[in-house]
Amino acid sequence: MNILFLCTGNSCRSLISEAVFNHLAPAGLHAISAGSQPAGKLNDKALALLARKGISTEGYYSKSWDDLPVTPDVVVTVCASAAGETCPAYLGPVLRTHWGVEDPSHVVGTEEEINVAFEQAYCTLRARIEAFLALPLDELKNDQARLKPELDRIGTIPG
User: Residues in domain Phosphotyrosine protein phosphatase I (predicted)?
Assistant: First the structure.
């Protein structure tokens, strides 16, 4: 099963999601990330956070949803409504869900406040990914009518 974590820039939240998912996922599950308007560069603070957590980002880069190496089975948008952010709409024939997380790279404040925002985004995404991986995916992967509400519920889990 291929999971696409999608946002606009593919530099921070979708990167964190991809890296955490692949770090935790068992064989047969794989995440990729992309953006509708990729920044072309991964966020340095997101990379540093993942390194502190012992999560590899080797081979990851900011990429367009037009250049996906595989067709996703599930698309998870991770953008949020702050500052009028618009979430891209993936139009392919896949199961879609929304797990909105505020963009820590837009936080203005002290270094500590910015670091707290990154940690909070990480904790929220990790909690949701852990909930996803705890689902009985062998039962649900071929039953979108049951899987979709579970994915949507996961999008409400706080960090």
Answer: 1-135
